[in-house]
């Protein structure tokens, strides 16, 4: 009996130990069953899924946003995370999208335990992706670690590009050249022409491998005259069977300038060489080439064309020549100055006006459209005047009448804001300040009578106005007396002269009598 009890105790103990161990094993098995997306010790670190669990359908050339939901499954807060898709590496066929960037990445600063966050990528389907389903691996990285803490494969569907009927265009060009319209990085259509000119340049199946330009990007996106920028050109080998190799590219920009001293190419390579070498592009493959250029400082604001010549060999080492062109828009920065303000008067009363004038000198190479000047400040009524369009190298006049609204404590700052538009309608503004004083208005009636009808005694109590009136009266009286005296004196002198004349005539008459 004692022995059987011991056996039962051992069995019960074994069952208890098994009950403690088996749940842990079940957790590990469940975590391992996740496969991808596991971190250390087999735990699920993060979950990556498409928003609403949808499989997106892409079309050739169309941009679409792919939104992912990232869930923190570690049980602790995570920070400094990044999410990136696997672009296929050397296997370009595994990546159905256009490669506009060397790496696609979205940052997540902090993701608390158990919480979710959304990130998005904008992708454009390649024209040659076809109608199929692609499995795209997305990985979550922590900090600068090379190994991801989670990786999941997500699916996306692509659509084959409709085939255009080019039968009417075949054989028109003696060198087999063709033309295509591509969408470039700034969403503006550009026509790229290309074609081979080498004789015998064909593969074993008789077709000539073509290398075409599918688009380009500039960094920065806007090219300003006088600045450096990096030009990245996207290439594609249209041949489905033949690889091209030993590729040499040369860029040629148009010459700009009015004389020999100023004539130079619109774009100059900063390295001094306009040649680019590429080992090759596999059949139906793509590649990018880049070069850093400097835009001439005196270029006008307009697109400039760059010719791209290409020399390469097919699989039989037969040389093929072709060419293409791209058009790069150049922007000119507005450059202008103001003359000094002419203000008359510099002190005005409330309700009075001051005339403010200055000149606008357009020193740049672009036209200023719809220029306006707006005056604002303490003590004056807001005023806006329309200047109009100011051509490059011309002068615009600014002439405004500013009305005083309230008294300022001495000189007050007034701000003139100049606004203008570029050729695309974008508005820019700049400001210039000056000073103006607004004083209390003076009522002339107050000089003579106050509200009680009393004579104004002035600031010190002295009757200023009556005294002035008395002085004026006295001065007038004195002037009148002096005038009368002078008139009487003149009259007496005249009478004396007449009396002397009469005496002289009488004496002469007496002498003449016998």
Report what the structure shows.
The chain is of the alpha+beta class. The chain contains two helices and 29 strands. The strands form eight sheets. It has a five-stranded mixed beta sheet, with no helix packed on it. The longest helix is centred in the C-terminal third of the chain and has 49 residues. About 14% of the residues have low confidence.
Summary keywords:
five-stranded mixed beta sheet; 514 residues; alpha+beta
- Structural class by SSE content: alpha+beta
Low confidence ranges: 22-42, 165-204, 451-460
Largest sheet: 5 strands, mixed
**Spatial order of strands in the largest sheet:** 11-20-19-13-17
Number of strands: 29
Mean pLDDT: 78
- The end-to-end distance, rounded to whole angstroms, is 214 Å
Q: Into which percentage range does the β-strand content fall?
A: 35-45%
Shape: elongated
How many individual helices? 2
Helix fraction by DSSP (H/I, runs of at least 4): 10-25%
Compute the CA-based radius of gyration. Answer: 47 Å
In short:
This protein has 514 residues and is α+β, with helices and mostly antiparallel strands.
Set out the fold topology.
Elements: H1 2-33, E1 46-50, E2 63-72, E3 78-85, E4 106-111, E5 116-124, E6 132-142, E7 150-158, E8 178-183, E9 189-194, E10 211-219, E11 223-224, E12 228-237, E13 244-252, E14 255-256, E15 264-265, E16 267-269, E17 275-281, E18 286-295, E19 303-313, E20 319-331, E21 336-338, E22 342-344, E23 347-349, E24 353-362, E25 368-377, E26 383-390, E27 395-403, E28 411-421, E29 427-439, H2 464-512
Parallel strand pairs: 11-20, 23-29
Antiparallel strand pairs: 1-2, 2-5, 3-4, 3-6, 6-7, 8-9, 10-12, 12-18, 13-17, 13-19, 14-15, 16-18, 19-20, 21-24, 22-24, 24-27, 25-26, 25-28, 28-29
